[in-house]
Amino acid sequence: MPKISDRGLKMPSSPIRKLVPFADAAKKRGTKIYHLNIGQPDIKTPAAALKAVSESELDIIAYSPSEGYEWYRDKIAEYYGRIGVGIDASDIIVTSGASEAIQFVMNSCFDAGDEIIVPEPFYANYNGFSKTGNVIVKPITASIDDGFGLPPMSDFEKEITSKTKAILICNPSNPTGYLYSKEELEVLKEIVLKHDLFLMVDEVYREFVYDEREHTSVLSLEGLEEHAIVFDSVSKRYSACGARIGMIISRNREMITTALKFAQARLSPPTLGQIMGAAMVDVPQTFIEESITEYDKRRKVCIERLQKMDGVVCPRPGGAFYLFVKLPVDDTEKFCKWLLEDFNFNGETVMLAPGAGFYSTSGLGRQEARIAYVLNTGALHKAMDCLEAALKSYPGKI
Amino acid sequence: MPKISDRGLKMPSSPIRKLVPFADAAKKRGTKIYHLNIGQPDIKTPAAALKAVSESELDIIAYSPSEGYEWYRDKIAEYYGRIGVGIDASDIIVTSGASEAIQFVMNSCFDAGDEIIVPEPFYANYNGFSKTGNVIVKPITASIDDGFGLPPMSDFEKEITSKTKAILICNPSNPTGYLYSKEELEVLKEIVLKHDLFLMVDEVYREFVYDEREHTSVLSLEGLEEHAIVFDSVSKRYSACGARIGMIISRNREMITTALKFAQARLSPPTLGQIMGAAMVDVPQTFIEESITEYDKRRKVCIERLQKMDGVVCPRPGGAFYLFVKLPVDDTEKFCKWLLEDFNFNGETVMLAPGAGFYSTSGLGRQEARIAYVLNTGALHKAMDCLEAALKSYPGKI
Q: Whole-structure pTM over 0.90, yes or no?
């Protein structure tokens, strides 16, 4: 039998997917599960976006240009203009989700063995994309004690070598919800200019900010035109994860030209998704405002409930729809599995994402877990009831 | 300014896209171009597939499972049952086009420096995907003299080393249209079993066969269960290239499990495309039969016209919708550019894909070009008029 590759063997499994068989078994036993483990919003996709597809008069679903339709890239530029970022269609490549955007940029900016610095905990799939591209992740550990804020500049300086090509952050962060301030971005700017690095920012949660705070796009920082690369997506903003429409945005012409070669090899991003995406730009801002109001309610319910639980540490992050919490348990992988296998509270349980999978440094995050507040407040209260009861009866409680 | 990677610099540009600026300039001058350069069918997507999307009652365009919806994979298995191949949903991973399928399989089966043997001329993007994954393409040259049939077994044996992991063919072939016979597949079977290699077959043009011939899927060969991997797609079969729905099919459980890890990292294939894809399986076979009848008419027009042109060599391939021809010119890259820049016949011209881009061996294919017969017979006659006139007046004629 022919052998699969070492690359394949070493590719990490998704930390969230590992629990899926246990969740399936629990469902078969009739247990109701509150899914706080994945970032799949329950908000309805804007009706106008769905209508744009059903009313489209396309009779051939043809390839689009590899960089995306120009009319769609013009609409994206219009959206960016509204958030105060001046770009045009030529600064944009439309991709199959932000996932593909990250891969094209990794291929364009890194050779095998090159290094990328990422504050951890970070979005687990950055690991997978790095492994695929033979890129080495150099983590810098952020601390729950300051809510996972930007580690000090000296921590970055320590990790920079001749192989370092970029710093990557997610702002606001998946998995911590942390919203990096303009001042923190200025610190990163100083580092990348000093060492001539790319500054890659995953801004897919850009619109989801709370407590009257404001999001600063890295694209709005002056002097970073050649260094800044943004990953964006319609998935979370418009609750359309399955549209598979993401994008690379950068004013670095050489990088865009290079990424386009990878884009051409795979021919085109989805045509129907681009029709939806263009319609989304015309969706009134009230759609997003209502989403934010709803997520903020949920955020407050979760934070309030979690902060009342004995031994739980729950920071109050400024963005996204995630909380990254510390639980009084031996190991959240075991705990999350136990929640599905051995626990129920009135026939219900809750599914969380264990924290270790979001760290690159082995041994970290064992007491932490990510909570995605993607259910309505009624369901969240019940999920918190489950968690509260579980923490009281879990045998590995510490 | 931060530097892009060597990987990015070395990534080949699409041989077809290079001509696009010249085509754009010709259009601006008012020249009408017959596009025989890309495999974008002009056949209408089945109305039932478009209707399935517009009548879908989804109100959240959510992620699908990373391997694709089970109901869609069941429909794919139903389609395969109809062509005599017994597989089930667990043998299938749905991807964003066959392009993504090829990349997941390359990552799963090859480490950096491993080798893949591919008869040339081959689909140009195999080069790009190989470069991306640091896989070395070992070409085996097929000859126009026997219509680009399978090179002798000894040619393969000569290229096999300890680094060889797979043989890849496209059947029927893009770019040559060559339909590999069952006997030729049996030869490949013997080689891969002897050397324990994967046999990867891109079967996206499977349905397009002519002259009463039959296509043999590699999945129907006994004894190859662990070795055979098929790339498939709805793009050409149902004229839905922009749906971005491809798939990996294999009974090799370890390979599927490994490829799934790469699929999980990118979350999911397009949701709307899967709705279209499932509806396509129920489209009456008459849709495909009518497509084949139409393509066959076009094929005959092109072959008849080309074989009458002085100095042109045009084999009569059994499948796909491509012809790979030899032209009496110095260099088809120059000729194709000249067709766009310096030539017109009553205000019209034709765009072809130069042959060299489909070869991995440098220097080959300079007199060859790929013709995609994706226009109606009236347009094809006019395109052939242009080509005939051009070959008479081209200064580099030999």
A: yes
